[in-house]
Amino acid sequence: MSAFISISDLHKVYRVGGGMIRPGQPLHAVRGISLDIEKGATYGLVGESGSGKSTVAKIVMGAERPSSGAVHIDGRLMDGRSKSLSWLRTCLQPVLQDPYGSLNPTMRIRDLIDEPLRIHRKDLTARQLILRVNNLMAQVGLPSSLALRHPRELSGGQKQRVAIARALALSPQCLVLDEPVSALDVSVQAQVLNLLHDMQSESGLTYLLISHDLAVVAHMSDHVGVMYLGALQEQGPVEEVLASPRHPYTRALMAAAEPERGSLTEPLQGEVPSPLNPPLGCVFHPRCSAASERCRRDAPLLRQVAPAHWAACHYA
Q1: Which residue of 15, 178, 232, 251 could cross-link 210, Cys pair, CB 3.0 to 4.6 Å?
Q2: Which three-class secondary structure state does DSSP give residue 177?
Q3: For the segment 39-58, what is each residue's pLDDT rounded down to a tens digit?
Q4: The pTM of the whole model exceeds 0.85
């Protein structure tokens, strides 16, 4: 089976602190990411803030162009041209972290949901728009009585359901979920995650899930990729990776998510190094209690350690 989303050797470099004459210092936000997402599956990218997860999401969504590498979606090369971007907006939609900031507070809920249809589906009549909005609201579990309200009148969970309904308006094949529940109360997070899971089961949607929370990724994903300082440190089927994590960073994230399971793993110390000045050798070695001289000297390659399971550790 061919991948619905295929990312090949993706790099993104920004220039920081430059001016009219100086080009600026290179900041390697994404370093050689390669991954495939099967149609109807969920791939979870997990890692701390600054690991490059959201930059990968922006490139997949067409909001950023890669410095090198390629992204194919449903067999099409996303080259940044207007034709591919226009197709991409109907095929793939984002659901972002902050439902409070992603919805225009001056617009009614109905207008927020049907705005993509009014832009891209000018053939629809006013009655068809109303019916479509009502169906979308029902699909995400919102009563139609909320259609004429404004975002300030809704709870955080209801706002995120509006954002999901809006993302579904054009019947996309894929959603990019960038921290979709991190701004919500814990009691509401499970409701939104279960809604996304049910919609995927019913419609065969493909998800790229971005999260710093390994528990969210474990609940939602078929495959997981663990990112650190712009690069994948481990990836594979979620059950395999969580049952037998091969990278110390993955084990540390698991210990933070489930302390009772991580008694043999030391908690993470320190902060993620600056991508402007990454460590030599293994980028994780300054925070790894098991680091050796080899780790400080030689950068490990991402290598296969089990069927469909890869890790970038000398001792995996």
Answers
A1: 178
A2: strand
A3: 999 999 999 998 999 999 99
A4: yes
